[in-house]
């Protein structure tokens, strides 16, 4: 798989939000080659999340792909419903992108069943590599959409994974994995420790 | 292929060295042990005794990107002068094992064990706990695998067997370690070195028992135990003395002893008398005056009995009203070894081992000489079956 295959064992694709935008989404939107070119492009809403295996880049129980942002996020068997507030993604103190979160529900809208499938969809705040300030970036990027390359400005990069209590949601957020028991024993160590004499 | 890791980083963007446990054991550690060439010098050899955790990140940096965990090989050749335990002390502190060792499986079978250690600044037993955590991975050796066969059985004998096996584990071999800094999920008070913070302890215990972290079915039992502990904590505000007091400390320890009398009296007033009572006058100073090795055995068996009762109550939904003293646990070697630094050292992960580790740690400070916790613990356990107390 591209430049990844010659890495020794132990190296895995664990991109941060910032890396996803700076090294992948921005380059994609600017029609620059991604190095390594490992993240495939999939048509929007074509696949249910469990169909991504083999089509998107799989890394540590997460799937990555480029796509285009659409209004409706309905696939064959269900739809992605937004959860939580959008998060700003920043780099060097500047907001460069937006992270939207979705959860997949099976069935018709309004009578559907939630699943554990979660999607993070990353948008560029500024299609042109960050020359605008964040305050007015919304308007300006809309304008740009109007006349410059229409296609590239709504590129998104997506991370899809099945959330469960043990899945690694994101390298940066949940890396420090201590098992539940470890945590308990650690707190019991506190108990022990307080018990020691003070002299 | 050449990726310069230490000079210019050629690790492609988005990639990190974040090996799975299987990769650590089956690729890196196996190669290390077999003295095979490892393509890339991503994991360095480190003399754990000479490296403080806060220096590890500099020494074990991979590439230039941000890193949350660091890896190194370490050779477990240093022992404490007094015993067989691995010496993991540095100039500024020491690594102390916590919990029990966890077996690491690949798709097929057990491939190794993981020990969790916490870094304490200072010297035992006065160390100050830090947020630095180490996972130390070792390959499975013959003894470990033989104990694996019995691990499924939750019997005292299997625990004893695996414990015996663990004693002669691969003590002198290479291990591969991952070091990281613990994140705080909630506001933590563990830096509070406050002296008489029984309430703090209770709060900590309650917090853990109510935390959603522990709501999985697996931990329900422990949850329940912690819950009981939380309830009984009102009666165990007192501080404990060190589990193995030296005779020189006797004076200092005699003083707090008077405080211990109250829970004993209340227990007496409760009138259950399900245990043979230790002499009323200052049990802890009596024990403290004795040479360390003659710590009365019954006291160490009592907390096992308590634990048995709790476990029984959890498993059966009721307490057997048998006498605590009938639950004979002749395994006090195990108890002792769990007291000091190596708590959970080379433990197997049978269910009983789990409970015993928990019991040991909950009651550890009490078991050597002090009774108050035991009593309050006993009382809370007793309350489960009898309602007529006091």
Automatic annotation (TrEMBL), chain A:
The entry's keywords: DNA-binding, Nucleus, Transcription, Transcription regulation
Start and end residues of each stretch annotated as Disordered: 128-149
Gene3D superfamilies reported for this sequence: NAC domain (2.170.150.80)
Subcellular locations according to the entry: Nucleus
Residue span(s) of domain NAC: 7-163
PROSITE patterns the record matches: NAC
GO MF terms, alphabetically ordered: DNA binding
Principal subcellular localization: nucleus
Biological-process GO terms, alphabetical: regulation of DNA-templated transcription; regulation of programmed cell death; shoot system development; system development; xylem development
InterPro entries associated with the record: NAC-dom, NAC_dom_sf
One Pfam family of this chain: NAM
GO cellular component, one term: nucleus
PANTHER family, per database record: NAC TRANSCRIPTION FACTOR 56 (PTHR31719), OS04G0437000 PROTEIN (PTHR31719:SF251)
Protein name: NAC domain-containing protein
Gene name of this polypeptide: LOC100840174
TrEMBL record, chain B:
Keywords: DNA-binding, Nucleus, Transcription, Transcription regulation
Biological processes, Gene Ontology terms: regulation of DNA-templated transcription
Keyword field contains Nucleotide-binding: no
InterPro entries (UniProt xref): NAC-dom, NAC_dom_sf
Region Disordered, annotated ranges: 185-216, 233-257
Domain NAC: 11-182
Example GO molecular function: DNA binding
Domain of life: Eukaryota
Start-end of Low complexity biased regions: 205-216, 247-257
Official protein name in the record: NAC domain-containing protein 43-like
């Amino acid at each position: 798989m591209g430049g990844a295959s010659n890495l020794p064992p132990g190296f895995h694709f664990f991109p941060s939000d910032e890396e996803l935008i700076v090294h992948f989404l921005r380059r994609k939107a600017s029609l620059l080659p991604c190095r390594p070119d490992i993240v495939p492009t999939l048509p929007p809403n074509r696949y249910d999340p469990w169909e991504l295996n083999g089509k998107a880049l799989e890394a540590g129980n997460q799937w990555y792909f480029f796509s285009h942002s659409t209004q409706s996020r309905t696939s064959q068997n269900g739809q992605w419903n937004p959860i939580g507030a959008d998060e700003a993604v920043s780099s060097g103190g500047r907001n460069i992108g937006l992270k939207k979160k979705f959860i997949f529900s099976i069935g018709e809208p309004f009578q559907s069943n939630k699943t554990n499938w979660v999607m993070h969809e990353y948008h560029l705040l500024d299609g042109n590599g960050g020359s605008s300030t964040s305050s007015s970036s919304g308007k300006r990027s809309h304008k740009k959409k109007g006349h410059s390359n229409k296609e590239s400005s709504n590129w998104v990069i997506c991370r899809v994974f099945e959330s469960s209590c043990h899945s690694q949601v994101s390298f940066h957020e949940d890396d420090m994995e201590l098992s539940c028991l470890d945590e308990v024993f650690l707190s019991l160590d506190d108990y022990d420790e307080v018990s020691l004499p003070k002299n | 292929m050449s990726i310069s890791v230490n000079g210019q980083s050629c690790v492609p963007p988005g990639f990190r060295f974040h090996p799975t446990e299987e990769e650590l054991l089956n690729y890196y550690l196996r190669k290390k042990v077999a003295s095979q060439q490892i393509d890339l010098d991503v994991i360095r050899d480190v003399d754990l005794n000479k490296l403080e955790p806060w220096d590890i990140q500099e020494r074990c940096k991979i590439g230039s990107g941000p890193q949350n965990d660091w890896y190194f090989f370490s050779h477990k050749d240093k022992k404490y002068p007094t015993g067989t335990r691995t010496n993991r002390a540095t100039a500024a502190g020491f690594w102390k094992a916590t919990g029990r060792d966890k077996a690491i499986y690949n798709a097929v079978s057990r491939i190794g064990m993981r020990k969790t250690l916490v870094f304490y600044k200072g010297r035992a037993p006065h160390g100050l706990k830090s947020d630095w955590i180490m996972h130390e991975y070792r390959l499975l050796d013959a003894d470990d695998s033989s104990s694996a066969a019995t691990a499924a059985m939750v019997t005292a004998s299997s625990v004893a067997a695996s414990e015996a096996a663990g004693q002669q584990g691969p003590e002198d071999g290479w291990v591969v370690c991952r070091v990281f800094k613990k994140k705080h999920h909630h506001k933590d008070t563990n830096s509070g070195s406050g002296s008489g913070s029984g309430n703090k302890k209770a709060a900590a215990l309650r917090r853990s028992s109510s935390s959603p972290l522990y709501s999985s079915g697996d931990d329900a039992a422990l949850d329940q135990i912690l819950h009981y502990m939380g309830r009984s904590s009102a009666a165990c505000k007192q501080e404990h003395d060190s589990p193995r007091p030296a005779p020189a400390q006797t004076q200092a320890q005699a003083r707090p002893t008077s405080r211990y009398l109250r829970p004993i009296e209340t227990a007496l007033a409760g009138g259950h008398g399900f245990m043979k009572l230790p002499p009323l006058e200052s049990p802890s100073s009596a024990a403290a005056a004795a040479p360390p090795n003659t710590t009365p055995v019954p006291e160490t068996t009592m907390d096992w009995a308590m634990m048995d009762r709790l476990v029984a109550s959890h498993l059966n939904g009721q307490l057997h009203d048998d006498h605590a003293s009938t639950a004979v646990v002749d395994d006090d070697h195990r108890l002792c070894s769990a007291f000091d630094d190596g708590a959970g050292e080379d433990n197997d992960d049978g269910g009983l081992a789990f409970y015993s580790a928990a019991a040991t740690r909950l009651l550890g400070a009490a078991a050597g000489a002090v009774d108050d916790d035991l009593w309050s613990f006993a009382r809370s356990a007793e309350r489960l079956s009898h309602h007529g107390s006091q």
